[in-house]
Amino acid sequence: MSKTIKLRKGLNLPLKGEAQKRVISEIRPDIVALKPTDFKGLVPRLLVKEGDAVKAGSPLFADKMHPDILFTSPVSGTVAQVVRGDKRKLLAVTVKADKEQQFEDFGKAKVADLSAEQVKSLLLRSGLWASIIQRPYGIVANPDITPKAVFISGFNTAPNAADTEYVLDGQWDYVQTGIDAIKKVSGATVHLSICGESKMAGFRNVELHRFEGKHPAGNVGIQIHNIDPILKGETVWTVSPLMLSAIGKLLETGRLDLTRLVALTGPDLPGTGYVKGIAGMAVKELGNLLWAWKKDTRFISGDALGGTSIGEDGFLGFFDNQFTCLLEGDYNEMFGWANPIRSKQFSSSRAYFSWLCPKKLYKMDTNVHGGVRAFMFNNVYSDVLPMHIFPVYLCKACMAGDIEKMEKYGIYEVLPEDLATCEFVCPSKIEWQAAIEDGINLMLKEMV
What we know:
The protein is an alpha/beta fold. It is 20% helix and 21% strand. The strands form 4 sheets. A 7-stranded mixed beta sheet has the order 1-14-13-12-15-10-11. Strands 2-17-16-20-18-19 form a 6-stranded mixed beta sheet, with no helix packed on it. Strands 3-9-8-5 form a 4-stranded antiparallel beta sheet, with no helix packed on it. Strand 18 (297-301) and strand 19 form a beta hairpin. Helix 1 packs across helix 3. The two termini are 39 Å apart.
């Protein structure tokens, strides 16, 4: 029988614009992008050139450090552009999709009939090995390292996040096959965390955990901390249910299928809901389903707290199944915090009157309502972070580049998304996630 873990700390962001459970369109994208920037710790080696014909599942680039880890095209078509940035850094490979899709044939297989090495080889060749994330640091899993455990979060508490059970409806057999595959290739215990009465409670080959609490209770990093914390020298894997479904489809159909339901969310959308799309689809493919392309709109791949701003020319991230649209908050407020009313503003404390309306949803934008200032030492951060660490000391250690103190205060256990709530409530307006990201990059450079 599963144990219920009740988290008393956290913060649910009352943001308007949750996706209604309806499919409003099916998008067959013209251009799809695969971005090396979606994969932490990757040094890409390009395998194609502009004009090359590819199938869904054909390799586009590989990891220089681990050449057997391939990153494959989500669609068939022609390589349209190799996008590079400063110092010729590879930013994306775009593919112009065919009208009739063609797939690399990886062969149908049953997990029970395959060895662990055969499953690993299949995942590496298909590009789905990249869906396995290794902690510490949140990098693509090293195929030469055996993890102590695998963790799966079966729910998402981020603002207006896509409903996991809705997007996976009808795909439960694929998810079970994906779990069986990960169990075999890792040889470790698979921990599955759920919330409430979930259809995932019936999965086999998992150790079940139930969580209750506010965001970030749905973050797999929070769950790891409360189930089996990561110590120095230990390695764990994490896989999302969305990626498990793709692994299951690969085994049962022999094809790479990255199609998914994508939630369209935001307080000013003409209508929220889901579209059937694919990883790497362009924002512009959504047309009038989103905004009327205002200059003051921020397009985010992911949720409002931990997502990535991609602009109107951007593409959906490899791991994401949510687009969020917010108005840019590039304005000044008369009287600012000294205004005694501010009925349209939400506060996690009792600074405004929002605490009198606990169920009210707010039309938020990106305005941070202030400028960067010195850190304030109080319990505002620990109240929204259900982890037994010292978040302020960790953030300051990352900002200072002090590796010894980063280790002492918990860098092995966190990713930027885990401290997004700290950034939201921060009275000093510190960019917590950027600081943690810099700390992790320093650890990767110096320690790995």
